[in-house]
Amino acid sequence: MELTKRDNILVSIISCLFFVHVIHGMLDQLGVVDHTVFTDYWLPVSFFVLFVWSWCIMILGAIEIVSGQFSWGMSYAFFCIIAWISLFILIKYTTGMKIVPRIAYLYLIPALVMSLAYLQRIPLH
User: Fold this and answer.
1) What's the pTM?
2) Nearest to 24 by CA among 50, 56, 57
3) Which of 109, 119, 120 has its CA nearest to residue 58?
């Protein structure tokens, strides 16, 4: 399967965002940081938090932003805005792609962007 230029860019974005979480998990194991999603939970739960819970937090974060109450903090609000912007950019950017890769990109990249807020504080704690 030959990847197009768009596919290469999107795969590299996913890899970089995932790499940030892996490095953060290694720093947690070394005792440099307090917590990380990958080491605080059992591994399948960690992926649930990263990819499924991120969408719930994006939706709830948008509601918090509209209501003006930032109970999770400003980092969650910032990354929620960035994740929604990335979703709309991806919708435009992936036009004309096959449906399965397009859905994968539209699902993974905003979830990983939103999960960058977890580097400061995990949502289930």
Assistant:
1) 0.77
2) 50
3) 109
Tokens for 83, please give them. 């994740």
What span, in angstroms and rounded, lies between the C-alpha atoms of 77 and 94? 25
**Do 117 and 22 touch, CB atoms closer than 8 A?**
no
* 77 Cβ contact partners less than 8 Å away, ≥ 6 residues apart: 61, 64, 65, 70
For 47-56, the pLDDT digits (tens) are 887 788 888 8
Half-sphere exposure of 29 (CA within 13 A, CB side): 8
CB neighbours of residue 91 within 10 Å: 12
Instruction: Record the tokens describing residue 6, joined without a space.
Output: 């768009």
Angle at which helices 5-29 and 99-115 cross, to 10°: 30
Question: In this structure, what token pair is assigned to residue 39?
Answer: 């080491």
Give, as one character, the DSSP assignment of residue 33.
S
